[in-house]
Design goal:
4 strands, globular, about 30% helix, about 100 residues
C-alpha cells in the first residue's frame, strides 16, 4: 500500500513520469496536457511487463487535478485499485516472467 505520508512526488512529476510497482501491480503517474489545462494521469497494469510492452486493454486509467491534492487522491485510487483487484495482481506475480 502507498503510505501517503511518504508519497511526496509532486515536484518530481512536474518534470518526469513516475513509475513503480506494488506486489504485481505496476503504475505510472504523469503530467498530461488537456483541453482544460494540465492534468495528472494515473495508469495501472499487471506485471511483468513495462508500460510500453503491455497491451492497452490491460491498462486502467484515471485523471486527477495536477496538484499536491491530486497526487493524494491518486494515491487513494491506487490503494483502492490494489485492494479491489488483488486477485489480478496476485496472478500477475505468480505468472510473471519465467526464465
Amino acid at each position: 500500500m502507498i503510505d501517503k505520508e511518504k508519497f511526496h512526488i509532486f515536484n518530481y512529476l512536474k518534470k518526469e513520469e513516475y513509475t513503480a510497482s506494488m506486489d504485481g501491480m505496476r503504475y505510472m503517474l504523469r503530467k498530461k496536457d488537456a483541453e482544460d489545462g494540465v492534468r495528472l494521469e494515473v495508469i495501472v497494469w499487471p506485471e511483468p511487463y513495462c508500460y510500453a510492452r503491455t497491451a492497452e486493454e490491460k491498462k486502467e486509467r484515471k485523471e486527477f487535478d495536477f496538484s499536491f491534492d491530486g497526487v493524494m487522491e491518486a494515491a487513494d485510487w491506487l490503494n483502492a485499485q490494489y485492494m479491489e483487484r488483488r486477485p489480478t495482481w496476485d496472478e500477475a506475480k505468480r505468472n510473471g516472467m519465467k526464465f
